[in-house]
TrEMBL record, chains A, B:
Keywords from the UniProt entry: Glyoxylate bypass, Magnesium, Manganese, Metal-binding, NADP, Oxidoreductase, Tricarboxylic acid cycle
Record-given protein name: Isocitrate dehydrogenase [NADP]
Domain of life: Bacteria
Any one GO molecular-function label of the UniProt entry: isocitrate dehydrogenase (NAD+) activity
Key word Flavoprotein present: no
Every Isopropylmalate dehydrogenase-like domain range: 6-337
Substrates-to-products reaction catalysed: D-threo-isocitrate + NADP(+) = 2-oxoglutarate + CO2 + NADPH
UniProt cofactor(s): Mg(2+); Mn(2+)
Recorded family membership: Belongs to the isocitrate and isopropylmalate dehydrogenases family.
Function: Catalyzes the oxidative decarboxylation of isocitrate to 2-oxoglutarate and carbon dioxide with the concomitant reduction of NADP(+).
EC number(s) reported in the record: 1.1.1.42
Assembly, per entry: Homodimer.
Amino acid sequence: MAQNVPITVAYGDGIGPEIMNATLDIIKAAGARIDIEEIEVGEKVYLRGISAGIEPSAWDSLARTKVFLKAPITTPQGGGYKSLNVTVRTAFSLYANVRPCVAYYPFVETKHPNMDVVIVRENEEDLYSGIEYQQTPTVMESIKLISRPGSEKIIRYAFEYARSNNRKKVTCFVKDNIMKQSDGLFHKVFDEIAAEYPDIENETWIVDIGAAKLADTPENFDVVVMPNLYGDILSDVAAQIAGSVGMAGGANIGDGFAMFEAIHGSAPRRAGQNLANPSGLLMGAVMMLVHIGQPDVATKVHNAWLRTLEDGIHTYDIYKEGISKQKVGTKEFAEAVIARI
Amino acid sequence: MAQNVPITVAYGDGIGPEIMNATLDIIKAAGARIDIEEIEVGEKVYLRGISAGIEPSAWDSLARTKVFLKAPITTPQGGGYKSLNVTVRTAFSLYANVRPCVAYYPFVETKHPNMDVVIVRENEEDLYSGIEYQQTPTVMESIKLISRPGSEKIIRYAFEYARSNNRKKVTCFVKDNIMKQSDGLFHKVFDEIAAEYPDIENETWIVDIGAAKLADTPENFDVVVMPNLYGDILSDVAAQIAGSVGMAGGANIGDGFAMFEAIHGSAPRRAGQNLANPSGLLMGAVMMLVHIGQPDVATKVHNAWLRTLEDGIHTYDIYKEGISKQKVGTKEFAEAVIARI
Ligand SMILES: CC(C)[C@H](C(=O)O)[C@@H](O)C(=O)O
Ligand SMILES: CC(C)[C@H](C(=O)O)[C@@H](O)C(=O)O
């Protein structure tokens, strides 16, 4: 029998624990060969005065397992607290944030039935540098950084992803008519690397009109690569118009470390009510299973989940009269998926 | 008889001259009391080596008339050229960019029939500062600036606009979980000013999920105020999903100066083919007519334009079998509007 793979898990805040329980129940039922190391991160840790929201000891587990399944975190309001997502992404150089946004029409309501877009988001640079200054008493400055090595890594990742996933086109979004240096560099590197992949179509849009086309006719896009902040905004847009931000998972990929998550937040107002859709985190977990060499389990989970959606068993966020059959809570949804494994 | 109002006009590049001719023909036919001063800006001027794309003498006309109707401009690729839009916005402190994005269902096809959103975009700050550095041979830096006075002006403008246009809610988009200083300041000022307008509902979204909701259920938004770059991207998104970026006009408002434009670009590939939809620039002109104290003419133009749309006389970008009656070119569209004045 194959050995279990150790993974680090954080249950997160808000709806986090509910969707993590659902996700782990499902993947275990499908036969995931994993050993779970739980770490405590997020709100409780922040409020203990640890500005990064993660106990120093938790880093040991992350450094050991190199695989992190993370539920959404609540970062307390106010100065001094640093986003745990960003801390982990930076600490382990998780340069690629891969977010598939897929429509499941006719089983899940959407205005964009043929949508199947993968947002490949640069994940370390841009305005996420966290460098800000108070220039004068009334002027604040934030620093946007784009580097050639960073741009090369993410753009090459996007083309390699396209090639190995049989995708036909990689689109680049930039605003280089205004940011001629920073976005200009990203665009230039895109053109250079695109030339190395003659088998894959490429195009570049200014992000304003590109985002407009993506929101209106997403079926015309395939893989879309872009700097961090555009990717943050447009992956939420793409996931939501495909069906719900609650349906999309993301893989944060580095060299020898990966973090998997739902793309949505911790939705504190919905917490503890057995309401949340665990699908986003589950899709993150499916990507994780592929990553740790258990594609068989990943496929089992994915198929059982698809059948659940097809059977009209839907959480509130995707429930629609006439399409859905049964409105269920987080737990019942997980049970329905497990019953279909 | 009331005196004519002098206005400065630039025919622009690409499809610019065609949509400007159509727009001017229509507003003149409706009785606009204007004297036109034409200035030359854009591609030809850039290529003469003037990096701002505007002849020094053209500033005299702008400074005199203080009203500028501008067709889209092509900024040549490559270093050194500065966006004319941004130059004029900055030179005359046009702090508010107001972009109504309205669905004209059932006359114009849209997936969002009840959409009626006004994007109020801060127009002088943010990453449009134009300040960029090469930090190292491989790292580029762009500076994002947000100021208290700038935020106060645009946010107050948004609430005043809401009040005088009978709108119920002002929404703010920021990313202050990452940019705690810059977007944090914008958010703080929003809360302060919102408190002065108890008659108007207010809410703030993180721009990622806010943009997702806007793209999915725009009918839940009313006036939306945000920093420059988010406004650039999301006004294109909003206009496109309402029907077409070709349908939206924008007013760039300062103290004692205003510029009116289509929100879309110069579409060089469509130029000279009598294809372009002049509606965006026409809606800019309608806002201009109100601004120069000719609301009677504005209403005439707007109604004739609405009747043209309702009669199914559509340019290619909004033409849809089953909804449209006649596919027309730029000129024929203008003639149809004029016939309905
Ligand atoms: C929570 C927040 C810091 C994070 C981000 O901005 O990256 C989130 O929106 C995401 O997309 O993962
Ligand atoms: C042409 C470009 C500089 C401009 C902008 O970014 O503001 C345009 O996209 C707009 O929205 O008016």
